[in-house]
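Continuing the series of single-chain predictions for the mutant panel. This is the parent chain; the variants come on the following pages.
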Amino acid sequence: MIERKTRLDGSVAEFVCAPLVIEPGRRAVLRYVTDREWAIAGTAVRVPPGTVTIGHYWVDRPYNVYHWISGGRTLGYYCNVATATTVEPDLVAYTDLTVDVLIEPSGAVTVLDEDELPPDLVPGYRLAIALALETLAADPRTLVREIERETAAALRGR
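Parent structure:
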């Protein structure tokens, strides 16, 4: 299974993932294991090698969510603001709108990368970003409960 992220500059990143739940045209849950450490700029969150990422994607939401699990505990929920998400039997693809939201297990919400938006960003993308941020900031605890429930169900089904 391939996860394909297309950035605003047109560059593409692809990742080979294990499919956990695939509902073409609706949603997907994918599993990926990180091979290197990285830190989330502007936060204290570090993602060590071997961290399991459970990615949740929906065609009708303006974001996707990476649930990071290391040593049996949640490190955080990383939400990519996205548009044009598609779910096919062998591909999940989306356009990454640069802005991300980190929800920590404590409930703290941090908006990331807004400063990286190009000044000439089309109004439709600005609107999609605003909608995603409003949705994610309005009730992060409900989203976290949903992600925890869906991650557990997807991992049980493996």
